[in-house]
């Protein structure tokens, strides 16, 4: 058995020697450099583009803008319809692409462009009370906007204990270490693209429509991807710009976005205001849960973060209501960022649950256990498995939770006030239709092809383990090729669905090959579309529990995190080495958004002002001390053949609430606004 | 360093023990020279502003952000990139430790982390103190977790592999400290 073994990443050697090539590293012969020029206004029209000086500069091959760029066809996603019309829907919208033989020439030429605008007044100021806040048709991706069960207002009116609190989370940017890059090449009407993408097939589909091509005329390859966290989940404008540029100058064109350009062009997490109302008996058992989330979208594309989704599945409550509102502003389009919905949603819900535990005088671990549902609260569906209690118990045991004094602001250690906190986590265990093939080679080895993406998840290695077991051979006999859209349709590396989806198709293809006799030269193919659709309706979720210790210095506002421990029920663990890394990575990002991350909108200009890594703070090495992730047994045969639930997001869910709950325990001050910045800690009023 | 063409200079560099002489655009960074002119794409660009450490290389044995150095200003220097840290066939001990401890996920920050760690271990051995060193006068710094975290904080890892990066470096530095 390979599944369950700790295996060093297959591409590890390439990554530690620099041999691994990412999209911006691909040496396509004779390529030119595309430099993206962004609008400097938040709303209006481009009235003229003077490219005379740019075109006269050495090395400049073309200046594309709405007046001369090749025409695009259709797009499901209007953020991809770049250089097609003079409208400017937000600051940073692409208004031109300069193509030159070197990056230096392209960049300097771009600085000489004279672009005139007709400026219109804009509105980039998000607030929950915005008069244009509306009820969207659905929330991301296709969930119902509202759910109601029972009489929430009635139950709240008569509840013995009520928590009614508002929580805010700021805009956050994914900031994968690799800025988005693509190199596009046209050859006899066929388009080949190397793109930094979490889903080569999805990008291929988008480009096929945009350029009105036959499906077999587009190939997208994303062999190595430098992180994404949702930010590369679907096609982004850079890849369209590269293809447009290449069409215009008749040679390959590479477009690499700068770090600041990512902020307006590739997505971010919307700012969110959440109001959570809990009604409970004095012993902490819920009678009402009301969760209302308000967020923003752009005028280009409606994206409503599914923030209150978590409250539909987490705790038993006779009355339960979840609602979403959204307002379309003159701002860049928010998109997926690691655990869209559950990351901010869990901050509000799991903070409120902690407030309830304090109000009831019940231990927060026990209060959560007392509110375990028999079936999924909003839908009534049975759970395929639910091991949240095991996560809470095992986490508490390992962390040393028992005997914790619940009273706040008691533990002084020099200038540090210490405290501990807990929060629960859940994330949907999705499996999406995918296809894969496996070939028995003449030398006795096997080659698997699947349009998976390995954005750092370890997918390539996990799929090799899965294939080896399905073929009943050692891993060394199997080569898994991924991230090439020519391998057929496959799920995106997103929504924690990647390995669950791809492994299903890989197992099906391998079993089919064995059933056919696996003669040399034969290939078996599988598509799991029907099998995925045929699964019974069940509530399928992963679970986790975070335990955090903080040290707070109220005199400097500094919050340190000596210890984080997460216990997770995430189905079958294919590769414990990389699974642990992915969970710790999620927890690390959770700490980062709890304490540091915040994209600040200057509403006068419609610009995220702190658009680089010096001003948008992500956790650095010194911010992280001990972080550990452990697994609890979580067998589930209602998922997919391998029994995996996905690991990409669950580590971040609940992490911020656990940390905020620990800060309350340390100081007696409740932080309902993220991030818990030094000034917020410093300006708090302390009881002592 | 002079050239007949305006805006262009001749640069002589030794990169991973190989001498190079090339005409470069004066606006070109050392990072872009490595990546675009020499095809040494192991060194990554995460920000181009000295804010992330992905472009870390060894310049005369010391770690630098190669995006902050103009190629013309590095003329005459000797540069070691991730492609040159092993001895050709054998991996550098830090490269091995990163594999064993899974000190990376997407791998994009990894070349910078490894180059940075190589120089950092030398700095500590030479007694350079850091902000967390208890004794700034010590002849040699013992690299415990806190020292490693502090000294490696110029290399961001958005995948959040810090815990494993520190374990990998401690494994190697333990033998040296
Ligand atoms: S690319 Fe040089 S420090 Fe980020
Ligand atoms: S491994 Fe992805 S940024 Fe460090």
Automatic annotation (TrEMBL), chain A:
Tell me which residues make up the Aldehyde oxidase/xanthine dehydrogenase a/b hammerhead domain.
17-121
Record has Oxidoreductase as a keyword = yes
One annotated GO molecular function: oxidoreductase activity
Keywords for the protein's UniProt record, in alphabetical order: Molybdenum, Oxidoreductase
Q: Which InterPro entries match?
A: Ald_Oxase/Xan_DH_a/b (IPR000674), Ald_Oxase/Xan_DH_a/b_sf (IPR036856), Ald_Oxase/xanthine_DH-like (IPR016208), AldOxase/xan_DH_MoCoBD1 (IPR008274), AldOxase/xan_DH_MoCoBD2 (IPR046867), AldOxase/xan_DH_Mopterin-bd_sf (IPR037165)
The protein's name is Oxidoreductase
UniProtKB/TrEMBL annotation, chain B:
Q: Which residue range or ranges hold the 2Fe-2S ferredoxin-type domain?
A: 9-85
> Which UniProt key words apply to this protein?
2Fe-2S, Iron, Iron-sulfur, Metal-binding, Oxidoreductase
PROSITE patterns for the chain: 2FE2S_FER_1, 2FE2S_FER_2
This protein's source sits in the domain of life called Bacteria
| A molecular-function term among this protein's GO annotations | metal ion binding
Q: In which pathway does it act?
A: Alkaloid degradation; nicotine degradation
- Mind telling me what this protein is named? 2Fe-2S ferredoxin-type domain-containing protein
């Amino acid at each position: 058995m390979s599944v369950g073994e700790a295996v060093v990443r297959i591409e590890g050697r390439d990554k530690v020697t620099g041999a691994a090539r990412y999209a911006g590293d691909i040496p396509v012969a004779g390529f030119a450099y595309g430099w993206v020029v962004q609008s400097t206004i938040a709303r209006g029209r481009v009235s003229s583009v003077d490219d005379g000086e740019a075109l006269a500069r050495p090395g400049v091959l073309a200046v594309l803008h709405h007046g001369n760029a090749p025409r695009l066809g259709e797009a499901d996603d209007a953020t991809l319809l770049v250089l097609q019309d003079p409208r400017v829907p937000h600051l940073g919208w692409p208004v031109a692409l300069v193509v030159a033989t070197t990056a230096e020439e392209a960049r300097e030429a771009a600085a000489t462009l004279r672009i005139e605008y007709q400026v219109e007044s804009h509105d980039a100021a998000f607030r929950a009370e915005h008069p244009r806040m509306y009820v969207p048709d659905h929330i991301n991706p296709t969930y119902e906007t509202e759910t109601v069960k029972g009489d929430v207002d009635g139950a709240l009116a008569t509840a013995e204990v009520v928590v009614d609190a508002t929580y805010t989370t700021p805009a956050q940017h994914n900031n994968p270490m690799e800025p988005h890059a693509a190199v596009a090449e046209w050859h006899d009407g066929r388009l080949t693209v190397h793109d930094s993408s979490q889903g080569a097939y999805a990008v291929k589909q988008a480009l096929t429509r945009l350029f009105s091509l036959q499906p077999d005329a587009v190939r997208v390859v994303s062999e190595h991807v430098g992180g994404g966290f949702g930010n590369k989940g679907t096609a982004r404008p850079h890849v369209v710009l590269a293809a447009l540029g290449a069409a215009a100058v008749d040679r390959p064109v590479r477009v690499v976005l700068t770090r600041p350009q990512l902020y307006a062009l590739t997505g971010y997490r919307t700012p969110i205001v959440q109001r959570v109302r809990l009604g409970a008996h004095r012993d902490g058992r819920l009678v009402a849960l009301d969760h209302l989330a308000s967020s923003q979208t752009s005028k280009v594309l409606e994206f409503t973060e599914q923030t209150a989704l978590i409250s539909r599945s987490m705790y038993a409550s006779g009355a339960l209501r979840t609602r979403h509102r959204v307002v379309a502003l003159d701002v860049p389009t928010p998109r997926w960022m690691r655990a869209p919905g559950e990351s901010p949603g869990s901050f509000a819900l799991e903070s409120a649950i902690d407030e309830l535990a304090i109000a009831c005088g019940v231990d927060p671990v026990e209060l959560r256990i007392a509110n375990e549902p028999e079936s999924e609260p909003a839908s009534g569906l049975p759970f395929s498995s639910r091991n949240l209690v095991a996560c809470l118990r095992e986490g508490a045991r390992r962390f040393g939770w028992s005997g914790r004094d619940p009273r706040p602001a008691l533990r002084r250690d020099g200038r540090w006030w210490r405290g501990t906190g807990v929060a629960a986590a859940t994330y949907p265990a999705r499996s999406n239709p995918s296809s894969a093939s496996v070939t028995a080679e003449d030398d006795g080895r096997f080659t698997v092809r699947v349009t998976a993406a390995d954005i750092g998840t370890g997918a390539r290695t996990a799929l090799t383990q899965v294939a080896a077991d399905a073929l009943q051979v050692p891993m060394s006999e199997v080569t898994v090729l991924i991230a090439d859209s020519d391998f057929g349709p496959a799920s995106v590396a997103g929504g924690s669905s990647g390995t669950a989806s791809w492994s299903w198709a890989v197992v099906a293809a391998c079993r089919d090959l064995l059933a056919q006799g696996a003669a040399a030269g034969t290939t078996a193919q599988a598509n799991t579309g029907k099998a995925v659709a045929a699964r019974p309706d069940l509530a399928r979720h992963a679970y986790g529990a975070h335990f955090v210790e903080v040290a707070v210095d109220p005199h400097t506002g500094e919050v340190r995190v000596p210890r984080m421990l997460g216990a997770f029920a995430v189905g079958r663990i294919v590769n414990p080495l990389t699974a642990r890394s992915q969970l710790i990575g999620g927890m690390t990002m959770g700490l980062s958004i709890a304490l540091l991350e915040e994209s600040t909108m200057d509403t006068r200009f419609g610009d995220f002002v702190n658009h680089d890594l010096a001003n948008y703070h992500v956790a650095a090495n010194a911010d992280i001390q001990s972080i550990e992730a452990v697994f609890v047994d979580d067998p589930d045969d209602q998922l997919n053949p391998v029994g995996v639930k996905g690991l990409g997001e669950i580590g971040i869910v609940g992490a911020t609430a656990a940390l905020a709950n620990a800060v309350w325990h340390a100081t007696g001050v409740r932080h309902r606004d993220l991030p818990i910045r030094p000034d917020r800690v410093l300006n708090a009023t302390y009881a002592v | 360093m002079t050239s007949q063409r305006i805006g262009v200079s001749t640069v002589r560099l030794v990169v991973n023990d190989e001498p190079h002489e090339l005409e470069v655009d004066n606006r070109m960074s050392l990072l872009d020279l490595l990546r675009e002119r020499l095809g040494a794409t192991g060194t990554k660009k995460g920000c181009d502003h000295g804010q992330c450490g992905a472009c870390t290389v060894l310049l005369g044995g010391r770690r630098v952000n190669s995006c902050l150095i103009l190629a013309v200003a590095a003329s005459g220097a000797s540069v070691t990139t991730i492609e040159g840290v092993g001895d050709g066939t054998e991996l550098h001990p830090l490269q091995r430790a990163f594999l064993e401890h899974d000190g990376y996920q997407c791998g994009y920050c990894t070349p910078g982390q490894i180059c940075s760690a190589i120089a950092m271990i030398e700095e500590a051995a030479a007694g350079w103190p850091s902000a967390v060193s208890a004794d700034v006068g010590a002849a040699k710094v013992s690299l415990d977790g806190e020292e490693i975290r502090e000294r490696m904080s110029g290399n961001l890892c958005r995948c959040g592999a810090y815990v494993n990066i520190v374990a990998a470096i401690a494994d190697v530095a333990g033998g040296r400290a």
